[in-house]
Task: structure prediction
Amino acid sequence: MRAAPKPTRGAAQRSIAIPRFRTESRREVYNHGMASTRSPEFTLKWTLAVGNFLGAIVAFVYFRVVDHASVLPPVRWFDVIVSLILFALIVGGGTWLSSLWTRPLHWEPDSLTPAEAELVRRRALLFPYFLAGLSIVGWTLAGLIWGVAWPLLAGVFSPYSSLRAMFGNTVIAGGVTTAFVFFATEHKWRQTLPHFFPEGDLSAVKGVPRLAVRVRLLAIFLLIGVVPLAVLGMLAYTRAVALVGVDPATAAEIVDGLQVTILFLLGVGAAAAVGLAVFAANSVAAPLKDVEDAMAEVERGRLDGRAPVVTTDEIGSVAEGFNRMLHGLRERELVKETFGKYVTPEIRDAILAGRVRGEGELIEATILFADLRDFTPWVEATAPRQVVRDLNEYFTEMDQAIRAHGGLVLQFIGDEIEAVFGAPIVADDHAGRAVRAAIEMRQRLQAWNARREAAGRPPLHNGIGVHTGTVLAGNIGGAERLSYALVGDPVNLASRIQGLTKDFKADILISEATRGRLDGTVAVEELPAVRVKGRVEEVNVYKVV
Result:
């Protein structure tokens, strides 16, 4: 085991054990520690002090009100000194053991090995159990000292009286103290656990007891039901023994005192029962409320939160499961957002919803090709990085124009763009959408060139060809990678028409099929029919003016 670093001033506040995978800065940890007083020493000292003080009160009341017979007469001053020494040894031993056990909770997170980080996380989860175990061991020793050792020193040892003394010290006072220490520490420590487990993966730590909700409720039920019954039973027994052989006047006094004692115990028991019941309900309801709040955030569309995981029981498992589900939703949203960079949101949603058939279908669509002019000389005269930046800016402008009119960019090929309108989502006015997109592409290119010329860079020009026809559309590719593609003669013809823009010195040319589907709002100029490569018949083309 590594040597613990020498503690420095203020270490109780700032050197809390946080695994190295934490994302908070050291200053943030310090500030948060000062605000929430989440030091293990603070929790240990405060809880043990209050819990043992409560146990001392319970023991005092028990031996003064319930079981007088087990209270031994005063012993010599030497016996008192020995008892004080033994008590100091118990307290000192418990303090030393707790300091040794909690030392890993102060290791600097940046220097931990994986095994040490795992030890720190395990100690963090075992912290309430350790304090509870320390308490029960201390009260067991107290029962042995004042139930066995003290009577032996006083010379009045009686097995029966010693058992009653041990019952009052260990079972009654020790049980109350241990329960209080465990539940109070667990409640306070829940504020600190998220700093040891930023990912909420409490279940990943092995060797930690899982206190189920039913076990927790059963333990509290035993405290509420069994302990008061045991106290009342012992009270009834001791008073019944005291009534044997006494005169009527003394018996009446005992009975009157018994009534007052019973009323006192009922009042204290009822208050304790209500307090424990409220505490138990809150220990279950509070984590469930955190999960409910996290679910409400998801309903509002906020996926950047998480449900705090502060227990290792069923509620903690539910919170962890919810966080895993939320992580999956974030991944799906990321995929959806990333997918939306390739297609329009409408097409993306249609594909994700299963409304787009990918096995192939014949569909009438309009295909658009756009190609940069004089691309090779420009590349040769421009630095490669500048070429990439300029191409990205150009493609961004053209892609936005295509998307604005419901088009889908199928691919970027060098300096060429292939887009389709009317597929994969059917649109009756796909031809008009394509032509309007081509006009906006022209406008965007002009505005972009104006900015380029103002920056001292040469303008770029393109040619756009548009054609409408029936194509085979579907997912095409290998087993590991597919792309949505169009197959058919209209695709080839659209590419040829784009090539004709060089011959006619026009920036936008459309085919006869596309012009016939326009609504007349786009001004076109008919050009002479031409013959293109791969076709016997001449093709009628129109210039968009």
Residues 40-264 form one domain.
